[in-house]
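Usage example:
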Amino acid sequence: MTSNQFMFLLFSAVIVIFSILTVTTRRILRAATFLLFVLVSTAGLYFLLQYNFLAAIQLTLYAGGIVVLIIFSILLTSHIAEKLPAAGLMKKWPAALVSLIGAALCIVVILQYNFPGSVGSTERVNVRLIGESLINYGRYGYALPFEVISILLIAAMIGAIVLAKKRKD
Amino acid sequence: MFEGVPLSWFLILSTVMFFVGVYGFLVRKNLITMLMSIELILNSVCINFVAFNKILYPEHMEGMFFTIFIIAVAAAEASVAIAIIINIYRRIVNIDVEKMDEMKY
Amino acid sequence: MNILLLLIIIPILTIIGILFTRDNKKVRVVSAIGMTFQLITAAIIIIWYLAERHAGNTAEVLFASNWVWYETLNIRFYIGVDGVSVAMIGLTAMVIFAGIFASWDVDDLPREFFTFLILLSSGVFGFFISLDLFTMFLFYEIAVIPMYLLIGIWGTGPRHYSAMKLTLMLMGGSALILLGMLGLYFNSNPDGGPFTFEILKIAKAHIPLNTQLFFFPFLFVGFGVLGALFPFHTWSPDGHASAPTAVSMLHAGVLMKLGGYGCYRVAIFLLPDAAHKLAWIFLILTTISVIYGALGAIWQKDLKYINAYSSVSHCGLVLFAILMFNETAMNGAIMQMISHGIMTALFFALIGMIYGRTHTRYINEMSGLMKVMPFLAVAYVIAGLASLGLPGFSGFVAEMTIFVGAFQHADTFHRVATIIAASSIVATAVYILRVVGMMLYGKINKEEYELITDAKWYDRLSVGTLIFGITAIGLAPLWLSTMITGGIGPVIEKLFLAMN
Amino acid sequence: MFDFSYTIWILLIPFFLFILIGFWGNKFKPAVSGIVGSAGLFTSWILSIFTAYKYFFDVGRVDDVYQQIIGYNTLWLRFTDTLHIDMGVLIDPISVMMLIVVTTVSLMAHIYSTDYLKGEKGFERFYSFLSLFTFAMLGLVVATNIFQMYIFWELVGVSSYLLIGFYYTRDTAVAASKKAFIVTRFADLGFLIGILLLSYYTKTFDFLTLTSPTGPAIGTPPAATFIGLSVLTWAMILIFIGGAGKSAMFPLHIWLPDAMEGPTPVSALIHAATMVVAGVYLVARMFPIYITVPIALQVVAWVGAFSSLFAAIIACTQYDIKRVLAYSTMSQIGYMMCALGVSGMGGHEGLGYMASMFHLFTHAFFKALLFLCAGAIIHAVHSNYLYGMGGLRKYLPITHITFLIACLAISGIPPFAGFFSKDEILVAAYHHDTALFIIEYIVAGVTAFYMFRLYFGIFWGKKQDYHHTPHEAPYSMTIPLIFLALGAAFAGFIPFSHLVTSDRQLFELHTEWIIAIPSIVIAIIGIGVAYVMYLKPTDIPRRVAHSLHGFYTAAYHKFYIDEVYLFITQKIIFNHISKPIAWFDRHIVDGSMNGISYVTNQASDRIRGFQSGQLQQYALVFVSGTVILALVFIYLWT
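Running the assembly step on the lines above writes:
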């Protein structure tokens, strides 16, 4: 077992276990915490794959931003001590069944497919390259999605403010 | 060049994570936990992108960029979703999804 | 300017007038003025038509105008009249005129009421004058839709149920009609060239027998629903029972005639071969209608139900006669439509007036009304006698023409059916006399009935108009018969060709 | 050629009177209606008399044959080129005779009613209906074609209905009027079908064409048959059913006794003298065709004979004097029918035909007289019932005498009118069929018996204590009585065989004393029995009734025919046909329509349930769908 494999298995174990805990725990704040673990482990996978910039974004934005946002909203809407009611069996079983069948189906397909090995050489992705790509509008340039995303973010920001604003009446 | 871990491992991981997210989305009643499940789903997709990129086409960067964009979209989505949740909470002092069936029929 | 257009324009102008009338009380005056003009126009058309024919004009339709409406699909606004439609116009004008006066004391939203009523009548007029299937269907829908609102809003009893039932069944019928009409359209030109909705052109096309056999039931049943063909008649008792007076009048008097007219003008005329092949099925159904309606009426207690079942019987006779495919019976069918139209409108007008005074429609709760409201009671007796086919009234003329015509059929089956249908005249006598005996004769059974007043001037006008209609036809039927015979000539000719 | 077109006015005058009195009668004093009506009818009567004179004695006879003259004809409605209804006036011996009968009796009834109904509510209504009836009846007798006859046939039916129901606040009157109309209507259905059959095979309605020896009915009769009888026979039997309904022949007679609920002048006019003989007239009118279909004629004869016996027996047991007269009417019409049935064609062979018409003529006088007398009696004692009367001869002298004349006439005592006509009928029956003769012979005796039972019961018998002293009727009522009594006494001397015969040629009549004497004898026996039993109150009637117990009860209850009808109409038609149909319609036919709508509604409700608003349910379905689609596309659909 190479170190890569070991690290991968470690991260994936954390991810799977905490994912499951996230969706099953009945304390909402714990769920958020477990989600944080999952996201951090994902960042670890990115590191493993040598996408350092991406991992950094994952950590700051996801782990740092979104999870904090979620925790804030939890604090706004629920009591921390409160235990969520358990879902009914009529709800659990179909959902579990569908999820298992879906997962099994995907895994079987994945295992049956013969992926080609990697061909090209690799070079280390540096931040400069990323930055140039983001503002490049030629081949492999992402200027347009970048702009779109920025507009989206502004829209979301404004939208969130408008939605969450307390009505006068 | 990334050695040792086959692509299928990544895919299986993301599959498991994805369906755990789906399960969560289908089962949890609380809107915020549902949102968390969505985050899980999104994350699993991100892992796929990244893994494909790294293992199959290491000379390109599409997977990474899409992941970045997904994260951005996820952030936007989370903020809007939370705004909506808070709004709903203000109205019905509850964020139980089963109680929100006014749009039926 | 085609004079027939006036029949549509006058109602529209009247409706505009109603909408601009400030005072709710004046609405009925405006309507009355409008419909008086309508009646005059109809009279002028009839006289003009007779004069034209007298002068030797032998065109198949008179006063024809043909405008393109929608070029791509070759839809036209094509109007014109023959002897049959002229007669139907006269009927409609008379009934709507009487209907306005019969609903003189509608206090609840009179503006809307009269608007819908007149809109309905304009649809009927349009239907009778159109010679293009598409226009015809359009006007048909205009006539049917306001019925829902009129019953649903101004009705009595379980009005929503009745209105819904009536509308749904008629809509079902019109869906069948639409299918049938589209079938005609797409087969209107088997030799190539543009398709057409024009009735007279389709009549000249040779539609293959199998196509005819396929589409004939759609059209006949579709129109038959409106003509109260057994077993699609059940909207009629409920609908009539719930409808306000004028609506019952128009509906039984005129709208049901759309069914018979449609069967005659579209189903039989355009698909004669299929009509010949399938006539026996519908002949059985209509014979059942005739007997069944009459026997069903005997048991009823509600005046409107009695009349509704009686309408089933009489309208069954219309379809019965149409299916006999000979000139005399067909002539009788048209006369029966007119006769029954006026008669049943008279009945419903009277029932409405009686109900307005006694607040009940159950015959066993009324007695001796002859004494307190002689005018209405005598009118009711007259209507009843007309309905049971007494000579001197239109019903006799129509029924005898039908029976004599139907009996001239060489086929024994048809003659047996005629005998069965003719026996309905006894059942008719039973239920009519039962009502007259229980409700009008005898002693007054409730004190409050002593205070009842007889008909007001508008009631008298309404009833008088209709009585005039039935007696005029009943005493001197020859002109009407001759006029109608002129109209049904082409249909008979086509059927004759189909037979050989 | 003399122009008879003015005869249309004989009809039109009553018609206009009907309109006039019907619309404007209530604007004036009631008496005005009576006077106007009577005056108008007087004009018609004069015209009829004039027509009869002209026809019989001036222009009608050419070469010893009475001509059939179309006085007036106009097209009313055209069915096909050959089938059309005309409105016209046919002048021939029987129609002219009927004109006389109808206008005379109607005039008498008009005059009589001016006092009889004085002060009644609806006096002018009565006169307008009376005019309507007269118009319709006249239209019927002068019809030029069978359809015109049918039209007026219906109109007399309705005016009879209206007049029976004149006292519309009385339940019995309403029921009686309804019954009369519906029963005759039922019979008319037979008539109508008969007309349809006849017209289908002959392609004409016209009487002259139909009865012409070379016409489509007689000259070239249709070959078609149905259950062994020719269609012509069927048609004639069906037409006879119509006639039987109007003439109250068994078993369609049930309406006639009840019809006595109408005012008495109406009974006299409609239900004794004119309308009820319309059936006889119809058969007489179609007689040339009947003679070619012997089976139909047999039916006529036997129905007539049976009805006459049947009614005569019932008449002996009834106590309502008007009902006795009604059954007597039925019996006498049975006589006429029977006479037609036994008649042959032409010359002395056609004796029955002549006798029937003769009897119709004389019967109109004495039966109208009897009814009007009954009216005067009822007017005086305010009761219809025999046991409330007795010893009235002193109070009502004129009525007494006239009644006696009528009784003698109907019993067939010479020289009163009934003797002559009845005797001819018996002769005709004797020559045709002994069985019929015996029946009619017995009936003659029974008739004498029940008439004198009535006579003795009313005018003799024990004296009653009346509430107020009965008094003789006023002149307007007694004058018609006297007039009709003259007719009843002397009408028998009219030489009918020179006027009204089957082939319209006159023949010489000989009184056959071998028949006449026994018939007089049996009449006297009948009178004698009545004299013994009823002149003074005795115990005999009760004992006779007791010894004939079952039969008497049955006869008293009119042989339960009414009950049978009631059973058929109420139990079977009403409860077992109409009610189930109403139920079937509401629950099966309409139920299936409602069922369709119910199913649609339910289905839509179910489908609506899918749209629950539960987000997770949607998501579950969505995911499952995706998974299933994936499975399908990966494994199943490759």
